[in-house]
Specification:
By secondary structure, the protein is an alpha+beta fold. The chain has one helix and 14 strands. The protein starts with a strand and ends with a strand. It is found in: Cell membrane.
């Protein structure tokens, strides 16, 4: 019975440990004195945090025990993530003097990314045995967060409303400017028409007549010839 255990083939390089192969040896006549349970799946969004639980039930023996976490993914083989001794603060006892009944161990994972997806196994070594849980698989939810979509749509709607308002104000200003220029052009055309009409059709009442009497400037040039009178029309602007 003392040979019942999990045998691991581990490759160690510096501080990195990589499990190449694992073999579990159990004696058929030996009954397990405790059980290890894990939740099957943890769905999360990118960037969020999750806490993996490992529950050890019906631990009827006293003594030290240890907990180990392993991760297995499609990209790499299983490897040791975290190992620790049992913490009495995480265990509940039926009675103060009785054996430990249930223990819960947690593995927090912050800022989940695609590189952290995979199956996480909890292994508990206690009562002369090593038991593995069924594993908890971390999956990143497909698609975009609905709340993120709502924020994006609200932002797009706000930007569209601002653009429509700016366009409406611009059109209003352009229309006012066009109306002002059109009125000025019409006024200039009317003034030009009136001026041209006044030049082409002079008013008869504005014509004045004058008689000019030119006297000789020198007595030498005085002649007794008959003086002609010339009449000229003058237009008053």
């Amino acid at each position: 019975m003392s040979d019942a255990a999990v045998y691991l083939c581990i490759n160690s390089f510096l501080q990195d440990l990589q499990i190449l192969q694992s073999v579990t040896v159990l004696v058929k006549t030996m009954n397990s004195t405790f059980a290890v349970q894990q939740s099957p799946v943890e769905d999360t969004d990118p960037g969020e945090s999750v806490i993996l639980n490992c529950t050890v039930q019906n631990m009827s023996c006293d003594g030290a025990h240890s907990v180990h976490w392993f991760k297995q993914s499609e990209e790499s083989a299983a490897g040791v993530l975290y190992s620790s001794g049992g913490n009495s603060d995480q265990c509940e006892r039926k009675t103060k003097k009785g054996p430990t009944n249930s223990c819960v161990y947690n593995l927090p994972i912050d800022n989940v990314s695609s590189g952290q997806t995979g199956t996480y196994y909890c292994a508990v070594a206690a009562c002369g045995q090593v038991l593995f849980g069924d594993g908890t698989r971390i999956d990143i939810k497909d698609g975009v967060n609905e709340l993120y979509i709502i924020y994006m749509m609200a932002g797009a709607l706000l930007i569209s409303s601002v653009l429509v308002l700016v366009l409406a104000l611009s059109l209003c200003r352009m229309k006012k400017k066009y109306n002002r220029l059109s009125s000025e052009l019409k006024r200039q055309r009317r003034a030009s028409s009136v001026t041209n009409a006044a030049v082409q059709e002079p008013d008869e009442d504005s014509l004045y007549y004058a008689a000019l009497n030119i006297q000789p400037s020198s007595r030498r040039h005085r002649v007794t010839a008959k003086t002609d009178c010339v009449y000229s029309g003058v237009q008053q602007d």
